[in-house]
Amino acid sequence: MTKLYIKAHKPFVEKIITAKGVKDSVILGIKTYTNNEIDEVRKTFQSLLENVRVTRLLKEIDDLKQDDTISISDAESRLQSLYSEIDSTQEDQKDKLHAFYRGHILFLKSAYLAYEDAAGKKVDVSVTDTRDAKPLEFLWESAEECLPVLLDVYFDSPYYRDSLITSITETIFNYSAKENERKN
């Protein structure tokens, strides 16, 4: 039987992202997918969430703590090495997840930022749409370079980070973690 689905008029969804703790927002253009494409995206996302290596390292730590045959100094050295590996693995996973999220954002609109110039003067920057952003030679040289720069700023912001991740995930997978059910 052939499946019938609604075809999106645009290859993206515009989503308002509101900062937590401050009254500010930006608009993200998040890529939309067909039913077949979303299965591949879901598999990629699930593979990024797997913590097989961390689980193995934690088991190795538990085994090491119960090992009576190893000296205390050797155990402490090995534990420090294992904890360092866990931290490194978790950082790699975080970087891959952020790259995943960035890969689904097509544009950003209504970004209002500021920077200090060489004289220490505050200069306001307004980016109405990253797809046609004007070059700022010290930040980006073209509209294509604008989006990654702004995404770095917003993902590094404690006010925006959680809202970005939640909105992107909910939009791509049509799922709300708060409501614990698929949206219709």
| Strands in their spatial order, largest beta sheet | 1-2-3-4
Poorly predicted ranges (pLDDT <50, ≥5 residues)? Answer: 180-184
Distance between the termini: 23 Å
* Anisotropy-based shape: flat
Number of self-contained structural domains: 2
Structural class: alpha+beta
What are its keywords?
single chain; 184 residues; alpha+beta; Methane Monooxygenase Hydroxylase, Chain G, domain 1; 2 domains; two-stranded antiparallel sheet; 6 strands; flat; disordered C terminus
Task: Please describe what this structure looks like.
The structure is a single chain. The strands form 2 sheets. Strands 1-2-3-4 form a 4-stranded antiparallel beta sheet, covered by helices on one side. Strands 5-6 form a two-stranded antiparallel ribbon. α2 packs antiparallel against α3. Helices cover 48% and strands 21% of the residues. It has 2 domains: 113 residues, no CATH class; 52 residues, Methane Monooxygenase Hydroxylase, Chain G, domain 1. It is of the alpha+beta class and 184 residues long.
